[in-house]
Amino acid sequence: MKRFCILLILLCLTAGAAAQGGFPREIVDDAGRKVIIPHPPERIVSLAPSNTEILFAIGAGDQVVGVTDYCNYPPETEQKAKVGGFSDPNVEEIVALSPDLVLGTSFNDGVIENLARLGVRGIIISPETVADVLAAIERVGYAVGRDGEASALAGNLRERLLAVEEFIAGKERPRVLYQVWHDPLMVAGPGSFVDSAITLAGGQNIAWDAAKGYPRFSSEVVVLRDPEVILSPKTHGSGAVADAPLPPGWEDLTAVKEGRVYSIDADMIARAGPRIVAAIEEVARILHGEKGEDK
Amino acid sequence: MKTKRPWAITALLGAALLGVLLIAMGAGSVYIPPGEVARILTDPSQEGSFATIIRQIRLPRVILAALVGSCLATAGAVFQGLFKNPMADPYVIGVSSGASLGAVVAMALGLQLRFLGLDSVPILAFLGAVATMLLVYNLARTGGKVPVLTLLVAGVAVGSFLSALVSLFVYFADERLHQVVFWLMGGFAGATWHYVGMALPYTVIGLAMVGLHARELNVLLLGEEQAQHLGVDVERVKRILLAAGSLLTATAVSTAGPIGFVGLIAPHMVRMIIGPDHRSLLPAVALLGAVFLVAADTLARTIISPTELPVGLITALCGGPFFIYLLRRRGLSP
User: Fold this and answer.
1) Of A211, A219, A247, the CB nearest to B307
2) CB–CB of A176/A158 below 8 Å?
3) Global ipTM
């Protein structure tokens, strides 16, 4: 009888919780897997800096128990357990944290599959464009029971993107080179995340016909297409590209002659997280001047 | 069947080098017609983006590829002769692993030294290569002699050890060290006149040292005892050839990264065609190495332009089948 009572109370409690947050919830992840999340996750492991940033931005930071070695934002990530690298996290570490949800990207497909075999629930959220990021924020919010915060954040970012769109409307699009690396020269190619950010910020990427992703690129073509603005990533502790000597023949580029060579925080512009919008705002300012002032 | 006129082959290769250099100057992501190329090269007052491309990007790149090609091919011929081993290549005594370690250390520490316009990577790569050569040589020395077999084994062992250190660095690399991976693929995308200035004197010195000992290399092929009887100071010649081969390899690796295949197959190709006499073999090998690498680099930067491929991919993809074809047709010369 006593046991029955406890069971009954437990049942009521879980039913109540379920009714409260609408759990269990079903989500189709970016690998096309249908995953049931039975209750709001309390122990989340994030396998990518972008997803970590999304989780903290929607107020789910306290639910996070593990992140990767590369997760460096926000500063609170320092207090979380580290589960190893980005594409090769330590599966044992992850399991030892007994997570009730693991959030990976398409790089972690194999890891998520392995974890599923071990009975650990995982989903893949892998935004590929800026629009995807906004959707990803809402989907992550749904998966971890932070719907309200997520849609507020997504709404705010959407408004800011619209403001940028308005700001750049009708303005000439300067030719932009995004220099990922200097030797060998590597650039942001078409379809890359950075490429879409440049377009949204009102620039035109001069590497529009390169291979996808972040390919090696011909220095000769840079000279011929003469970028008006050069952007390069700045990572913590090293500004290698910005500090490197100018490649030969680049002295006469418009961007160099006019002093329009800038470093951008790589973590902001190359990560599919909420800070991409701030990066787009910054690039828009670089390309078109402060609001109100005409460049 | 050996060709009776090796000098005709060498002249042919010289002409081929001129031809491929001319094509390489015009071809690229941006096609520049030969007339335009000639005008830009002969008239310093020409300006514009074509002039910039030719003078500051293409010309140093093409020249560096030619120098590195002849360094690698000649080093390969020297080591194959010295070790009497057809598998020997410029990297056989670990020089490239030493250079790689030097480059990786420069990148890992973020060293910012500048010397004659070069940054720390080529400088440390060169020092790493030379230090490895000295280490291997001293490891292999027993009682005033350096048996080639000991040298070979010591080189392979040291090379593996240094490669493991490089892998260790790469494994623990943070984002900053991603460049190591690209450096290890090799290539000429970063070529500047400074690199040409660094490579040229060592290439000339190395080729001259080898060329002056072509006869001794022939005699060494008969065996060290025979050579001794014929009045060759075997240990001294070995030392000189070893130093020259390593210098050539160090020059190539420190300016272009490790590029495979050229040093292994160019000597074999020439040997199959004009025979094993080093006096006629060496000039032809140096020329073929230059032709091959300039052509490979031209392909690397044009095939899917404006995206560039790593040149090592082309050398292996094009060199491999052609080499096997030659092997089937003519067999391997000693």
Assistant:
1) A211
2) no
3) 0.74
